[in-house]
Amino acid sequence: MIIMRGGFKMATTSQWSGTEVISRLDRIPVWPYPVSVLWVIGIGYLLAFFDITNVGFGLPVIIKQFHISAAASAIPITASLLGYILGAYLNSTLADLRGRKVGIISATILFTVGSVATAVSFDWTWLVIWRFITGMGIGAEIAAISAYMSEMSPAPIRGRFTGWANVFAFSGFAVVPFVALALVPHFSWGWRGLFVVGALGGLTLFWSTHIAESPRWLLAHHREEEAQAVVRAAEQLAEKKLGHALPQPKILADETHVQQFPTSALFKPPYIGRLFLLLAIWIFIYLSDYAWLGLAPTFLVDKGYSLSNSIVFLLVTGIGYPVGALLAAWLGDQFERKYSIVTGVLVWVVGLIAVGTVPSPAVIYIAGFFLSAALTFFFPLLYALTAESFSTHARASGVALTDGVGHVGGALAPILALAAYGAFGASGFMMAFFYMAVTGLIGAILLPFGIAATRKSLEMVHQDSSQTASG
Asked: How does the record say this protein sits in the membrane (predicted)?
């Protein structure tokens, strides 16, 4: 029997139960899909993350061309964060109801249209509006890809390949300063070119329609034959890579699929506790990291360094971004995920304290490298842990209501960091960095209360939590 769905050709023979479909997927020890899937997801992710920070490099020129006060320059960043929260939730609801592929495609369209429209904006108001749309797409993309990678990856390698997707993502962070330096200072239209580069993620739309749908999502929506065909194709490719047959599957727990609006499922046991715990963790993490990402150059300039020196510090220390993401891919499944995240956050905290107390060039270079590496080490693992914490029926919505809404912390971060900076006079620099360290530390303290899901089938995690809640 041949099924054609969304350009993906699938062949099926004997019928498997839903439990067997997932058990067969979760025993595969290698990435069982074409490498092109990683490239499509990765490049889209890279350019979405490129769009997160590119506006900061264009703003110094934008506010001059549009005759905007420095006080108003933060409005596009705030608009993007608000768009992130709304877009993550709306698109994740779509992804939970209509499919992970639909969620990824619609998110890519949003941030591509937003970036192109920002690039051609000739009015401050419209620029802010289109940055809001871009933010919607970025938030939507992160939630949709987190759910997709969590569900597509076999249990033994889920952390590793979530990490690989984020190698692309955080490379987007590292690339922005180089593209900005090549365009913005040398051309009056340079800031517009910077946004056009971010829109190149739209090119992935030509291939994203051909990637497989999540078999877990298909099972949750009673499309068993299609889910079986996706896993059968995955088995065949895995056996070709391995050069031998896969072992017989151990039949694992099945997931009970409830038919209700995704968000409503999140406000019932056992998920309501996870929802608020992860929301608190994300808020405190964003209170810390958005202060560093957004205000580090400002604080360093006020400490006596020139703006060019501050940018060079961030360019050099940005080498840590891909290093941390590669470490996450390598170690993501070696240890219990939540404790690996705690380790990464603690390195982050120590780095902030070091810069705050001894802001010499040598310390800034060394601690800044570890800050960049720590950030991109624990973020992919925290994305994975967040997606693992919710059932298939509401997984994308769960990511949106924790990571997405958690960006409230990102919006408050510069306000609170600047308040700490201004309140302590000569010690303001140190206290601003201590504020970043303390908020990050609170996130680390909360993390051990999360679930243990490393190398476990998502269905087993769901069953264990359901039994605990009913008990």
From this structure: Multi-pass membrane protein
Pair 49, 195 in one domain: yes
For 204, the token pair is 């992935």
Residue-range definition of the domain harbouring residue 293:
35-211+261-470
Residue 74 maps to a domain? yes
Domain count, the chain: 2
Split the chain (471 residues) into runs of 10 and give each run's mean pLDDT: 39 70 93 94 90 83 85 81 94 95 96 96 94 95 94 92 88 84 87 94 91 94 94 96 92 62 90 96 95 79 75 79 90 93 98 95 92 94 94 93 94 88 90 96 97 87 56 46
In a domain, 254, yes or no: no
Residues 154 and 60 in one domain: yes
Nearby residues of 121 by Cβ (< 8 Å), 6 or more positions away? 127, 130
Q: How far is residue 61's CA from residue 104's CA, in Å, rounded to a whole number?
A: 32
Residue 88 tokens read as: 């993550």
Over pLDDT 70: what percentage of the chain? 92
3-state secondary structure of 222: coil
- The Cα–Cα gap between 57 and 185 comes to 10
CATH code at 465?
A: 1.20.1250.20
